[in-house]
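Researcher: Go.
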Amino acid sequence: MQYMLLVYWNEAEHKNAKKEQKAETFAAYAAYTEALKKAGAFVAGSGLQDSSMATVVRASDDKPTVLNGPYIESKEQLGGYYIIETADLDSAIAWAARCPGAQRDTVEVRPLMVY
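Model: Structure:
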């Protein structure tokens, strides 16, 4: 089964972090990604630019409406994702718990619909 691990965090806290904290965070994610790869669970993953860089598109009545910035205001924003392949949900949850984002922020585990 494939699962997406959605990593949510507080962008303001990460922007205001000291260089040392940012380096530690980057190293933790690099090590986590390497562990996923060594286990054969890694399919894809990436960090995302800040939500202020987002563009939201809605196309009601075939007329697109384009908005800049995040669609909703919230404390946490989607900061990145992993797509992993595991035997079952329990394994995906175990990997999510090891994600650096789960230590301080939030990791949502969602099964993918494979067509």
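Model: The helical segments are 11-15, 19-39, 89-98, 100-104.
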